[in-house]
Amino acid sequence: MYKIDSTQNRIAPLEAKRFGELGFTERKHLQEWLENCPQALAQGDGEELLIIQKEFDGFDDTRERLDLLAVDKDGNLVIIENKLDDTGRDVIWQALKYAGYCANLSKSQVVDIYQRYLNQKAQETGQPPANAADSLIEFLEVDGLEAAQINRIKTQRLIFVAARYRKEVTNTALWLSQFGIACQCFKVTPYQAGNELFLNVEQIIPTPESSEFMIGMVAKEDEEKSADTEQKQRHTLRLAFWEQTLEAFSHSNCALYNNISPAKDHWLSAGSGIRGMPYQLIFGKNEVRVGLSLQNSQAEANTFVFERLEAQKDEIEAAFGHLLVWLPLYNKKACRIQYAKAVDGYDKANWPEMIQWLVTHMTQLEVALRDPLKTINQKLKHKTFKAVEVAND
Questions:
Q1: What percent of the chain has pLDDT over 90?
Q2: Peptide bond before 352: cis, by omega within 30 degrees of 0?
């Protein structure tokens, strides 16, 4: 790794260090860094991990504890083992034991484990704890906890983090991967340049280039062995609902969804004129919803638009004809403005009424927000945010 000196047009090597000589420890430093920045373990596709516990020791008849426990976007449990300067010989065996222990955890137990973690974090900060079930629903992007598939059979993943890997560790990790056990090895190296310290995190197994291929092969094998019947039913149900909904929109005065295709997700998005801030239709088991989701990659842009819309709340709600729910969702990725109706969504006999409700209220919402969004977008174009994305139309 090199440091760029743009004034001299030169590069200078950074000095690679060992964690031990810098005074860093596994538990107080490396573990804390990864707990608070799990995106350091993201693959090339920007995978997200949600840390749900650290120093977890909730195993029956044993005092062993794993370093970090996380959930990925598919609801799989991820066992993360940190070994600082050297993996040692037994890290694979340790992680396999932990994966075996975790394989028996039910969805409710995972929620309880995460809630205990959130309670502990709240005690440390003096803030009220977040709700574990709600946080998991948001992270997994499902329409309710009953729809979330968490810790299914044979889905546990292993992540190893260390500065140096012994051959017996890397060979075993590659061998396990051939049997569908997801193993990742990340090499972490601290660097120093003067008084500045840097950390390089590099995935070495599987290599980023081969990850997609390996994941695809495992997925294909799983698909051939067994199909997830419930998930397929949900996807089929949603696809049918959206087909009927889009047909109704095509005969309405709302043109938002004219070029949108039906999907298997519980939401359907359409552009609002501001990039990363779509209108959304929501089809859930217990409710249907219309709304505007402010989900630009930069939270500052979302807040900018939300606050200016909220300043016109009375006028917008008068034009819409109902009181809206305004969700700033501070410290999260997105803000939302929405209006919902309770339904028995999976009873097809209710679909005609639900679809008409969505068409009517999305039409009203677009009319109510159209002019405010145009004005705000003009102002947004002249604001400077870090890597903010705004529409040019």
A1: 70
A2: no
End-to-end CA distance of the chain: 41
β-pairing, 267-270 vs 279-283, is: antiparallel
Confidence of residue 392 (pLDDT cuts 50, 70, 90): very low
Instruction: Return the domain boundaries, the chain.
Output: 2-105+151-225, 229-380
Reduced to 3 states (helix: H, G, I; strand: E, B; else coil), residue 282 is: strand
Question: Of 156-170, 215-229, 330-344, where does mean pLDDT reach its minimum?
Answer: 215-229
Nearest to 235 by CA among 261, 211, 266, 210: 266
Q: Determine what percent of the chain falls in helix, strand and coil, rounding each to the nearest 5.
A: 40, 20, 35
| Separation CA 324–CA 340 (nearest Å) | 9
Please state the pTM of the whole predicted model. Answer: 0.58
Report the C-alpha gap between 160 and 173 in whole angstroms. Answer: 9
Helix (H) or strand (E) holding 98: helix 91-102
Q: Please give the CATH number for the structural domain made up of 229-380.
A: 3.30.1460
Provide the CATH number for the domain formed by 2-105+151-225 in this structure.
3.40.1350.10
Please tell me whether residue 221 adopts helix, strand or coil conformation.
Answer: helix
